[in-house]
Amino acid sequence: MTDDLDPIDPEAAVELYLDQRQDGVSESTRQTHEYRLDPFVKWCNTEGDVTNMNDLTGRDLHAYRVYRREEDDLKPVTLQGQLSTLRVFLRFCASIDAVPEGLPDKILLPTVSKGDDVSESTLDPNRAEAILAYLGKYEYGSRDHIIWLLLWRTGMRTGALRGIDLDDLDRDDPAVRIRHRPEEDTPLKNADHGERWVALTDYLVGVVEDYIDGPRVETTDEFGREPLLTTREGRASRSTIRDTFYRWTRPCMVGEECPHDREPEECEATTFDTATKCPSTRSPHDARSGAITAHLMDDVPTEIVSGRMDVSPKILNRHYDRRSGREKMEQRRDYLRD
Questions:
Q1: Nearest to 179 by CA among 331, 312, 25, 310
Q2: N or C: which end of the chain has fewer CB within 10 A?
Q3: What is the pLDDT of residues 230-247, one digit of tens each?
Q4: pLDDT tens digit sequence for 311-330
Q5: C-beta atoms surrounding 15 within 10 Å
Q6: pTM of the prediction?
Q7: Domains in the chain, ordered, with CATH?
């Protein structure tokens, strides 16, 4: 340990870092950093045997990099993101005399080839429609049904969905207003630029009204607002919305046979807390890319999808459009015929 460093354990250092980041980034970004640094803290407490950040060395960082690549089987792009966050964290640690000043630069980031930084995970439109059909029949008007309908039909982000209040709904001219309210714990990813009105169908608004008049828990949040999506504790959290997708994208939940040859009695993914262990589960982000792709497949112009989903055409084309080259060609062929 260097004499001019102040002792601090890894967990306490991360807490200080996240507290410092709270004022400079959105809550979703802060949560992402917390998620990415959690494996590092666990590694320090187990494999690395690092109880004081002062003792962290370049060799330790290399060992952690190898561990994450091999033991956790991370893809290069995922590992790059995790290590980039770790480097930012260590620069903060250097600023508070917790690690040597040059230590952050000893992290070697994996090389990611062009195209490898694009996720291929998505939710197939046919699967989404099958799940919606099941929910519409057996879980009509439930909170889960509303979450699925709004996210799939509009392609909005979970943060936008979570921030909707009852008075954001226009039931006469079916639409919902998406608003950026960071001071009240409902920020948008693109801040004020993400604010917009999103058109809804009469059917969707009807289901939402049945949810409001039925199973919705009447509550106000700490700011006196009436959230659309509620739990007994108040406004639904992002994890509540994520878990809703993980739960219902398991094929067995909608009466389908397991495509992984698992027996329900022995499957580890059948409980509420273990849904993500099913290989078929998909996240809200997968649903967003699937919804965007579904709109494009229906010949909705890119600029219209861009405005509705709050994503630039460049990012849309690179990260969200899951149409194959063949499908794009066939759509161009049909357009030219018309």
A1: 310
A2: C
A3: 999 999 998 899 999 999
A4: 777 766 665 665 666 766 77
A5: 14
A6: 0.63
A7: 10-106 (1.10.150.130), 125-286 (1.10.443.10)
